[in-house]
Amino acid sequence: MAQHPGTYLEKQIHSQPAELERLRTDPSTREQVHTAAEGLHRVRRIWVVGTGSSQHAAALGAAMLQDAGRSAHAVSSMQFVHNAPIVGPSDGVVIITHTGETAYALAARSLAFGAGLQTFTIARRGIGLNDVVETVEKESAETYTVSYTAALMVFAMIAGKMGAESLTEDALARVPAAVAAAISGPGTEGVPSRARFLAIVGAGPSAITAAEGALKAREAARMLTAGYDAEYFLHGSATPLTTEDHLLALTAADDDGFVEALVRAGAAERIGVTTVAEPSELPALLAQIPLAVRLQMFASRAARERGTDPDTVITGAWADPGLWAIGAP
Questions:
Q1: The whole model's pTM is what?
Q2: Range of the domain at 275
Q3: Of 34, 237, 187, nearest to 120 (Cα)?
């Protein structure tokens, strides 16, 4: 495995195989997962709530619960608080917060508990809240990585307990090794860190990973980048790209060949293109964990090459405590 230098981001990326294996096998975590699965079994619909990376985890978590045959829907924390869909008394809510400090996530949790809904939180260790499935220690880098993949592992464990046929114990057991392989050879080495704009494109669940990977590159390397669903990308977003830009195509879950067709179109327009596959043969939803790690590795490399600090992301006026307190319960 490649040796990591000294940033917290790199250390946290490299910690993921061991942390995911710990979560999968730890008796305390398994008991928390069992409690959450039992509680969610009793509800009619499940709302999965988060912000930023946690919102991406919410989208994939909802898909995992859908794989278990449940009506599950991902919404942002702010939307849940101010523009929530019609939530009934027999519904359940899962809140994702890496730090346990995000204002609207805490407000959503308070709102759900106040309404008497079955509510669980997926959050860092030692958060000190009730009805929590704990993941990892609070990260030292503001470019969150291990807490993201840990939340996905927890969701997969919950969904597996609830009957998701693809999220078996055997499949979960293969995830840490797939993540280690992604760290050793991410496949993103050809992606330029100084392109004018980097478009990351995927289909199905990989579109969510594209959005998460773009967020990591923005945070860590201050890159101008965005993640797209393949169909959405075609409908206008590809139009302004030039030879100064780059297309990073995630070919996992490309059932219709849409992403591959976009690759051919980009090459015809003389746009630089890199394709990244996930060779682990994991089920499509679980494959998003090592696929996300491949994009984390790119973000870390881009930060080194661009000379940015991937551990301290929110600075200047964006770090105003008053700004971050808006929406708190």
A1: 0.96
A2: 181-306
A3: 34
